[in-house]
TrEMBL record:
SUPFAM superfamilies xref list: P-loop containing nucleoside triphosphate hydrolases
Pfam families hit by this protein: ATPase (PF06745)
InterPro entries in the record: Circadian_clock_KaiC-rel, KaiC-like_dom, KaiC_containing, KaiC_dom, P-loop_NTPase
CDD domains named among the record's database cross-references: KaiC-like
Record's protein name: Circadian clock protein KaiC
Family matches, as Gene3D superfamilies: P-loop containing nucleotide triphosphate hydrolases
Residues covered by the KaiC domain: 36-294
Superkingdom field: Bacteria
Lineage: Bacteria, Pseudomonadati, Aquificota, Aquificia, Aquificales
GO molecular function: ATP binding
Organism expressing this protein natively: Thermocrinis ruber
Length: 294
């Protein structure tokens, strides 16, 4: 016991508190950004986020008309649910509004992603040539150094954000940054999240779900690490109508595919908690539709 107390005494003498991490409430609120909505260009999504304001003596729910500014949102689902399409729609829409968007592509080389972005713009009725240089692509799919080394990726992103005045960052996908080393998922996502906050980015992280995961949970490859660290998660799912029961519930025919969308938590604002139908149009645009059950 005496030896333990002696060790603790020595430790107390060696360790100094980090006062740079200590704030009073008023000091912290003075540094807090204003919460407002960032329109996404994804039909049906923006009114699903809200804040509560005091009007007279009553509290009223007010739509944010977009995802919360400065939030880091996780977009997860199995393959072919529309995650990349949503990320590209968001990128094209913000760029068409005159904003600079950094797009970190981890899965496909930049030239292929650029062609896909142009198709998305055409489907949205936008002239890609007018704003294509507002999108700054970081090709981590082709650069092993960037994909395998988080400090190099963050240094490249910092250069792009600073020199191109970037406000929005999309990473498709964060899963590709910890492939074959999922025990590192939490550390990788935490560093990316802290970086986005430091640079006041509104960010979308695309992440893959494993086929064994429950469809509408926030779990992604790497476990719950991704959803636990970020500000909010949007879950995309698809389900085969393989029984009369499902056909009746979803009002579809046996053999159809139904796509679903749900917001699984958002710490920066209120949000709709219902499961909604999701549609991918023939031109490759994602729409969030009515909730199940109306």
């Amino acid at each position: 016991m005496a030896e333990f107390e002696e060790r603790e005494e020595i430790r107390r003498e060696e360790v100094e508190p980090d006062l740079s991490a200590v704030y009073t409430g008023s000091q912290a609120i003075a540094k807090a950004p204003e919460i407002y909505g960032v329109a996404t260009g994804i039909e049906g999504l923006d009114d699903l986020f809200f804040i509560v304001k005091q009007v007279g003596k009553k509290l009223e729910k007010v739509s944010l008309k977009g995802i919360p500014a400065y939030s880091v949102m996780n977009l997860t689902g199995v393959s072919d649910t529309g995650k990349s399409l949503m990320a590209e729609q968001f990128t094209v829409f913000r760029a068409s509004r005159g904003d600079r968007v950094a797009f970190v592509t981890v899965e496909s080389p930049a030239n292929f992603v650029s062609a896909s972005l142009k198709l998305r713009a055409m489907a949205m009725g936008l002239d890609f040539d007018q704003f294509q240089d507002n999108i700054i692509l970081i090709d981590a799919a082709s650069s092993t150094r960037i994909r395998e080394n988080v400090p190099d990726l963050l240094a490249t992103l910092a250069y792009v954000i600073k020199n191109y005045k970037v406000k929005f960052t999309v990473i498709d996908s964060v899963t590709g940054l910890f492939e074959n080393k999922e025990m590192m998922a939490r550390a990788v996502v935490r560093r990316l999240y802290n970086f986005m906050k430091k640079w006041y980015q509104t960010a979308i992280f695309v992440s893959q779900k494993r086929s064994g995961h429950e469809e509408l949970t926030a779990e992604a490859a790497g476990g719950y690490a991704v959803g636990h660290i970020v500000d909010g998660t949007m879950v995309l799912a698809k389900e085969l109508i393989d029984s009369p029961y499902k056909a009746k519930m979803y009002k579809k025919s046996v053999g159809d595919i139904v796509r679903l969308f749900r917001i699984d938590g958002c710490r920066m604002s209120g949000h709709d908690t219902r499961t909604h139908f999701l549609e991918i149009t023939e031109t490759g645009l994602v729409r969030i539709k009515e909730p199940i059950g109306g």
